[in-house]
Amino acid sequence: MSWDVIVFDFDGKPPANILGLPDDYEIPEIGASDVVRKAISSGFPATDWSDTGWGVVDGDGWSIEFNIGQEAEVGQMMIWHVRGSGDPVTPIAALCKAQGWSPLDSVDSQFLDLDAPSTEGWEHFQAFRDQILAKGGTFSDPMGMDSGYNALLKTGLDVGIFIWFGFLIVAGIYVARRFSRTQSG
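Now predict its structure.
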């Protein structure tokens, strides 16, 4: 189970609400994979890129998996899977600010303020995760899908459902927009 940060390239000027973008708005592409790997490594020099589409770095009590895909170009978004404890938010915000990227917190579907990044979403995720694990929940599914969903059903936590469906809504909008563009163009 991870706290997911969805990273876009809005040149440091994210929209006020990702769900409020006009239907014809074209989300900018992030760029060439080799350039993106170098940019991520500039903020996280210890990143292991032995799988070029999936970088991994360990920090002070936390880890991040950078999912950039296997294509030569990174599309309109990257998903970063954050696990552990401590403060990964500050270095994520610093890297994103330096690159002009906009990180979306999957817990509250809001962009992080890169000048004063809140750890609230990260803290809510950790509390939710710890509560699930304290109730004997496990997350053996590598994608966290089946076991995470079953754990949500067992606990009935509103915050868990919010996290789960908030991510699905953002991903669904992205896919629907991408599909509609390929059908019309």
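The radius of gyration is 16 Å.
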